[in-house]
Queue: 3 jobs
Job 1
Amino acid sequence: MNEFVFFLNKGLTSGLIIGSIYALGAIGVTLIFGILRFAHFAHGDMMTLGAFVTLILTAVLAAMGIVLPLPLAFVAMFPAMIITAVLAIGLDRVFYKPLRQAGAKPVILVMASVGVTLMLQGLIRLFAGVRSRNMFVEAPKEIFQIPFPGASRKLVITEPQVLLILFTIIAVIALHWFLTRSRLGKAMRAVSDNPDLAKITGINTNHVVWATWIIGGSLACAAGTLLSMDVTLKPDLSFNILLPIFAATIVGGIGQPYGAIAGGFLVGFCESLAVFNWAILLRPFKDDLWFEIPRNMALVPTEYKLMVPFLILIIVLIYRPTGIFKGRVL
Amino acid sequence: MSGQNQYSVMRDITLFAGLGVLILIIFLTQGSVYSLRMLVEAGCYAILALGLTIQWGYAGLFNVGVMGFIAAGAASSMLITFPRNPEFWNSAGPELVAVFIVKLIACGVLVWLANISNRWGIGGKLRALFIAVAIAVAYLVLSDHMSEMSTQIEKASGWMGGLGLPVAVGWIVAGIVAGVIAWFVGKICLGLRADYLAIATLGIAQIIKHFLKNADWLTHGTLSVSPLPWPVPKPADGEFLLARASYLSIVAIAIVIIYLLLQRAYHAPWGRMMRAIRDNENASASMGKNVNGRRLEIFVLGCILMGFGGAMLIHFTSIYDPSGFIDLNHTFLVWVMVILGGSGNNRGAIFGAVLVYIIWVMSEPLALTLFEFIGTYGKAWFDWDPPSDLNSRALQMRVFVIGLAITLVLRFAPQGVLPEKQARH
């Protein structure tokens, strides 16, 4: 049983955690891709930016001597989400909107977003340096150890992980409600399906664009903050996290928020299960097996973890470019 | 195209004359040894920029994996030209590598057969199953052999070592390897929109770098390899001037040859077709042009140039270090060169490469001085304690400036300083 608990701890929990992060990031990317029609390369750095905003607010709260039952960083995340959303709209106004209005091709917007990602990266590292930081300013993070029936090893889950999973569930439900019930949400889906038709029917595209950046920016902030609460805040996310997020977006079908969630979890689980050492699960049966168990039976060595989202991306692009949820091929 | 941005011969001459004066000033103030080094590197970047400008300017392909193709080219050139490692050749290593190559070819054939099985009437789900099984078998066989091979080689001889062939062979192989990788990437992504190519090239670049960093048996990993051989006599006893000048002449000859060939291709029917596809894909497809086929051609061609230029660059620095391949220096810097110089204009690419590289090299001491200044006066006037890593932070300023340059050029001068000359036929 101990081996099974180890599998739950190392394989499933980490898949769930990283999957939630990818899902939160991919929702924003897929909405931007669906509505503004370009691959937003600055999303990874927007996550870092959001996490830094949270860190600053947390430090302010801690300096004011506020003590709360929840980690301060989690509380500070909500105002930080608003700030990041405003910053995202600002970035759109300064860098993307003029190009859109000039009728630039989508690929020019992609290039502009690459420029934006470099600017954000440079600014963040200029002001914050490159060392990693701890999001828990006031107290160390809490670790829950849950006894598992029939095993001496305990199920381990940390407080930020619980918060992350709860936040993801609530965010997904809220997003679903927003997209299917509210006027603006319906307008967003309409623009995503057919921008010209939506414009003729009198939908205010500006509001839709704002809503897109608000959702994308705030979820990016949340994903960045929760990821850095789970590990540490390092300003080197950008391109490393971009690939799995794009893979999740394309697997789920572009412009499909539910697809992005499914894709995020798919990529997250594939990644953590591919680097999991399956030999550990087989060890209890070693007397019954006809072969000797190798020391390491991970499908992919840990240093090549990045291969997993890339391979998923390639396979999807070859065999089903629309993604699982029948998104568009732009 | 606005009147101001029209192509004109005068503009061409003025800008190149200005660049010449700038280089002259650098020669006079910094000394010729330093300036020659800068010029050689700028020349290598010009080849990279030419590779990118034909992808972007001729065909509108968005490649953000320039660094990956440079790394692939540099690594293969290093393997071809570096002296042999006798320990490796006396161990069981060569046999293992030969078996690996045989297995690789066999697996490739297997996957290919599964992929074309629809020609023999195996379609739909069965074909998908065949492909999945073929890929899984290939992966398991190859990864198993590779882990075995890497441990054996690392134990017996540290790493493979090179083949000790002439440098020219290494450079050509560098181009071929980059081209083969590009063929696979392009085959998958070119039928789709430009964004997918961008994502895929970004991914392949990271993966190539990861592989080179971790494959200790093949490339010595992060331990780096030096000294790489030169095609001309190396600077012995401080004779930098002659050695660098002869290296520069080789780079210059390569640039001239590549430039002339590209100009010829641009004005040939092939180039005209390329521009037709770029400007109106549907129209040219309806005229019976094979859009994806042509795009694949130009993507591979551009990546061959990148591999070749990358090999030249690495051989000049004489040290192969996989951690030294950085997105910023090897992808986005080249992008700034291309869009600033004028996409679709080969002279523009060369101009942009040399100018931007000079600015780039000069910006490092400039940023450091600026921040030293800020640090000193910040302390003196505002009692501000500068962080200890101020210098490494100062260099991040360049990341910001590169990003700013990209966005500004896109918005205010999308044609670049030397716009494409619209050929009339």
Job 2
Amino acid sequence: MLLNVAVNFLEVEVGAVLDFHVIVLIKHVPDIEKVKFDVETGRIDRSSAPGEINPFDLNAIETAVQLKEKLGGIVTALSMGPPQAESSLRDAIARGVDRAILLSDHRFAGADTLATSYTLASAIRKIGRYDLIVCGEKTVDGDTGQVGPEVAEHLGIPHVAYVCEIRESYGDRLIVVSDMGDKFLVEVRFPALITVTKDVNTPRLPSLRDILKARRSKVEVWDADSLLGFIDMSRIGLLGSRTQVFKIVIPSEERRRGIILKGVDSVNKLIEALRMEGFI
Amino acid sequence: MSSGLSDGVLVYSEYDEGVIHPVAFELLGKSREIADRLKVEVWSVIIGYRVEDDTARELIYYGADRVFVYDHPRLVCFDPILYKGVLVDLVKQVNPSVFLFGATPLGRSLAPRVAAAIGAGLTADCVDIQVDECGDIVQIRPAFTGNILAYIRTSSRPVMSTVRYRVMRMPSRDTGRMGEIIRLIPMVEGDLSLKVLGRISRRSIDLTKADIVVAGGRGFKRRSDLKMLEDLASLIGGVVGVSRPLVDEGWMPREHQVGFSGNTVKPRLYIAFGISGSPQHIAGMRGSEIIVAVNIDPSAPIFRIADYGIVGDLYEVIPKLIEELSRIKRV
Ligand SMILES: Cc1cc2nc3c(=O)[nH]c(=O)nc-3n(C[C@H](O)[C@H](O)[C@H](O)COP(=O)(O)OP(=O)(O)OC[C@H]3O[C@@H](n4cnc5c(N)ncnc54)[C@H](O)[C@@H]3O)c2cc1C
Ligand SMILES: Nc1ncnc2c1ncn2[C@@H]1O[C@H](COP(=O)(O)O)[C@@H](O)[C@H]1O
């Protein structure tokens, strides 16, 4: 009996090690072209815009799904955001993600990149074993590109940023091209985190069938309490943030000269203007 | 180990193959201002292999009082873990009040690791840093694809930010300035989880450093038509930039892309031909000093941020510009 249990345990363990697990971090963001910015009051009206997966995170999902197709295993999508973010996680399922987890709780709200990355890292600890974490290059609203490397630091794993090409993938490591201006070939052993640029692949469109199937599949929603034992509540949300936005300015169109040159000699007028500005 | 030092404004100086990225000099200029207000020193740190004293001294000429140098063969290429380890160690030793990085790809990869390791807040991609009446640091950065500017305070120490290249004034180089170069021993053992196998290509151009950018968008009908853009660029000493669709089409390498997912440029002159002026494009060039737009559509948003505009066909305007400029050059 005892022996039997031990053997089963061993089988599970071996199986788990062979099972490649990628976690992809995605953010639900407003469609930036539709958000309304009020120049007078400095208000951002997010409600005016429908939400979607951060465009750069589509490349992250595609990277994860392609690796799964090659190496086997599963892909988990993880996102922290408001309840509406569930729609983006469903979209991720339609795009090939196997499991979707939404971290949603008012206690998570108001987080800067430090608190966001800490919360995501805590959830990843709870998820347990993984080989690789894939992030987008940056978000269209936060636009920091910081969350990925910060998650890696919290987890104590290496990261490679600006990955524009996956050269080789094995069960225990990747060889990637990192675009730092100059391009570098980097080998990284699992567990590891990469952030990918839009050059890494072309995200495929989900099929109608996958979209319909995703509609019926489950998105797990975790609140702060479900991370008990993995999280220090003083490090999340507004409370755990170390940067505070205290003012927002929506730049009105700048003090540009706005001179429209007309007529047949507009080119000559432009040349004259460039001469005056000292360019010619 | 404590060094007895404290409170300085620390600048990370990105160093590669004997060259310091010029954003470090700009940051030293800004740091001088901040430090003089706070009555503290300006420090810089440089990590690499075969870092000469002459190179480190440049940082002093641009405003540093002390330069910390970590020199080791294993530090020859950027390794986020080793570099982070070195900087966390330095922060613990010298306890800076402010820690600035250039918002280059390297800075944006390294700074967050350091910040997370020490539990500090980090403000990305700042376009300005001010000291308010109370002596607090205020960081200003664009967000929402450049649609807003956020004013940010940090409650942790050091105040950490990455700062865009070419937004701070380049200070003058003063070879009379005195300062101290301090060589420290980096900890580079252990971690082998990441290995830089080598540099496989060098960027052919660096748009972020260009003074004049001559840019084309989807108003161009054929790839071969970009030849006239190149001709015009070389005529006025500029570099060719493009909007994203031209890169997606494969007409131009990514190095040439201007915008949110490409380069943020800040030339003295930006000329946009056949570019509509989407928020994502503008996010990468709105800081240009003089903006010229040529577009067939008078309602194109690009005109709203232009200093000079020509409503017209680029296929007529560019050849005429080339002709006139060549004529001027000849005389
Ligand atoms: C997440 C994300 C990131 C993005 N990042 C970037 C980025 O980094 N950079 C970027 O540029 N875009 C980016 N985009 C794309 C952006 O939204 C626009 O689609 C793009 O900038 C449009 O490029 P364009 O102005 O060349 O083309 P269009 O918008 O098609 O404009 C073409 C213009 O040419 C004019 N024109 C046509 N014929 C002529 C002629 N003969 N003479 C003169 N004018 C003519 C037209 O009137 C029109 O205004 C991004 C989009 C997303 C979603
Ligand atoms: N709230 C979030 N939930 C999940 N992933 C996130 C979240 N915020 C940021 N990320 C990930 O981190 C990357 C960089 O985001 P940012 O630092 O906001 O520019 C994104 O492309 C995502 O992969």
Job 3
Amino acid sequence: MKYVDEFRAGDLAQGLAAAIAREVDTSHTYNVMEFCGGHTHAIFRYGVQDLMPANLRFVHGPGCPVCVLPIGRVDNALELAGDPRVILCTYGDMMRVPATGRRSMLKAKAEGADIRMIYSTQDALRIAVENPDREVVLFAIGFETTTPPTAVVLKQVAAAGLKNFSVFCNHVLTPAAITHILESPEVREIGTVAIDGFLGPSHVSSVIGSQPYEFFAQEYQRPVVIAGFEPLDVMQATLMIVRQLNEGRHEVENQYARVVTREGNRKAQALVAEVFELRPSFEWRGLGLVPYSALRIRRQFAAFDAELRFGIETKPARDAKSCECPSILRGAKKPTDCKLFGTVCTPESPIGSCMVSSEGACAAYWTYGRFRQPGRPTAPSTEAAA
Amino acid sequence: MCLALPAEIVSIDNSRETAIVALGPVKKEISIALLDEVSVGDFVLVHVGFALHRLSPEEADRTLALMREAGENPEKEFAEGDAP
Ligand code: SF4
């Protein structure tokens, strides 16, 4: 496919690997956090870590929207789905996410709940039009990439005066989470997680632009290089981080210039600002409460807010005991540090959310990296990625 | 979840703010409500049924050239992508 295959070429990968090996200072270690699950996925799928010198390590961050949604919100969605009036529309990735008591949407659907997997918010709109006597609720999750499509559908239903459609909004913001990670005690405590530089989000940045990271690079004195999701993009961006660190710079640079600009997509930003406002605080699975890190629906669109329509209250819910997702999402632990990894917890039967989405660190380890872990059982023959 | 692919615009329906794109051999209808301006032949980044951004063929070529250069010529200074 054009603009995909070129960025997977093996010969260029070797050249970039050689350049990185040549330029790293062997007396230093380089810990590069990839925020996005899309990068985690690419790093494992293409074995990028294996092409890196021994003193350069990728630390996997919390950038998987499925992984960071707290259990309490999944419980809320399951409660909604249990209401016989409701058709719950969800992106496919959410189907297997374990909620309280190991329930999941997949199980609820099997038990008769009307849960529909959608590809686009436009599918949810169509379902609402086709089912005027049912309450259609869009379980809206994701970062800045999925938020504008939710804004579009809210404007469409408001314009059409559609009475049977509402949105359960769980959209979260990337820059707030990156800041939170750098301020977490694990990262401040020297020696636990040292993060020297960041691979910045690809598609999130196509919407918000590179500008929001500028403050962050200054304030925390860490380089941020916005990187595409193909393996060569990751490698080139890593080389740019290495160069910044070697030169003592901490700037925002943009490797993914074919899609990302400094301003981002202004039209999408304006739509999001029109429909949503900041929540003072929102819980992230693994990170806890993060101030101003999520969006809620503005008062003008309150008629379409499922939280108001159904009186949703989120109760605190605990992650499964011994699931290490919270530490993994902060880069403090690796999936293989979890004693459930690959034994009790697999993508077929996940205990924690990091094992669900193919962008979760545990799922990526299992699907692509686990053969490097001697003494672990072998993978099932089925395609494991969700 | 964050999967997004570059696809070529094949036709546009401005009244519905939709377009047909070609993803390799597959044709698909997407929304172009998030883009200001788009023409047939443009490549766009498609995510959850929406075009998020136009893809710049010039920047794609430039990035590939820089990758090639980094691998081939150790002496030559590597100009970073497009530092904002
Ligand atoms: S392997 Fe499973 S239980 Fe362990 S941290 Fe990952 S998701 Fe949680």
